[in-house]
Amino acid sequence: MTVFWILSPIMVVAALGLLFVRKAVHAALLLAVVMISLAVLYAVLEAPFLFVVQIIVYTGAILMLFLFVLMLVGVDASDSVVETIKGQRVLAIAAGTILGLLLGVSVGQVTLGTAVGLSDANAGGNVQALANLVFSRYVFAFEITSALLITAALGAMVLAHRERLTPKVTQADLARQRMQDYADSGRHPGPLPAPGVYARHNAVDTPALLPDGTAAESSISRVLAARGTVRTAPVNAEDIDQITRQLGVEVDTAPEVAGKVGAAASTEEDVR
Amino acid sequence: MTPYLVLSAILFTIGSVGVLTRRNSIVVFMCIELMLNASNLAFVTFAKQHGNLSGQVAAFFVMVVAAAEVVVGLAIIMTIFRTRRSASVDDPSLLKY
Fold it and tell me: How much is the ipTM here?
């Protein structure tokens, strides 16, 4: 019972968090907490097979599927707090409280007596005993399950399938389009400049510098620009000063540049 | 065994309230999973109470059905998201017009 009293508050708090967190990803992680705790409770309740299945199927497969869809839909898609039906939230919470009280009272009324325990049923091994049941008494349900799984797989494939409405763009089409753009608007037909070229860092968030020292916007991913995480050359220069101070190393005498005449002068600031 | 059943009831209640109050369809789905898990806990508890493995077999089948249900449900959510650019449960109400 010790495990139960440790895990049950955690589970209830995590489940309540599911009601209040704004971001769906946080909800998924809280659900993972509940499911792993449940798996441990299954192990305590003499169900080692279900313990493993709970970990593999629920936390492994189903929750990962949830996270996968969340990533597709957009992690930032948080819940709106606008009530579309007036008073719905209050009524839902009231109904939930009534349901909880009803269930709690009815469970509390029942006298269960001492638990029989599964030591007899699990005598030959829990998995063997379950297999005996699944392939004898519940074999029909088992067969129906296979039909259900096939139907679900087919349904998911049909729902996820998308007909191609426009013809596929080939390499030749892309090249033609590129030359057309060049002719029409003078857009550079070659590849975009790589980030960090002639800048102090070669990280993807550092824009390449043009000959006049300004940042080349096209060298940075549009996503980074939209998030506003692009680092400018002055910021990087500050970083270098800070790190130099932390390390207590003189840049000119540092092993990487020591002895190289004009090594420090090869950076863009000095050239400018 | 009663505490286990009470915990199961609490989790089921929280799941049902979540289904009613949350707007994001994926979170609603998670709450449904929570309710299924709560019922599974009750199944496993009763299996131990009665010394009978049928409860565990039932919990196993619930897990299989939940897996199938999640696959189809998430595919539906993806399809709605593709056309509506939203995963909110309020937007498919346009279906009635």
Answer: 0.91
What is the nearest CA distance from B46 to chain A, expressed in angstroms?
Answer: 9
What sign for the dihedral angle of Cα A164, A170, A173, A177?
A: positive
Tens of pLDDT, residues A120-175: 888 888 899 999 999 999 999 999 999 999 999 999 999 888 888 888 889 999 99
Q: CB-CB: which of B6, B56, B71 is closest to A107?
A: B6
Place of tokens 């065994």: B1
Contact (CB<8Å) B15/A15: yes
Core vs surface per residue B40-61: b (16+ CB within 10 A) or e: bbbbbbbbbbbebbbbbbbbbb
Q: How far apart are CA A36 and CA A9, in angstroms?
A: 14
Q: What letter represents residue A25's amino acid? A: V
DSSP state of B88: B
**Across the interface, do B79 and A115 touch by the CB < 8 Å criterion?**
no
Residue A242, min C-alpha distance to chain B (Å): 44
CA distance A199 to A197: 5
- Nearest residue in chain A measured CA to CA from B47: A118
pLDDT digits (tens, 9 = 90+) for B26-50: 899 999 999 999 999 999 999 999 8
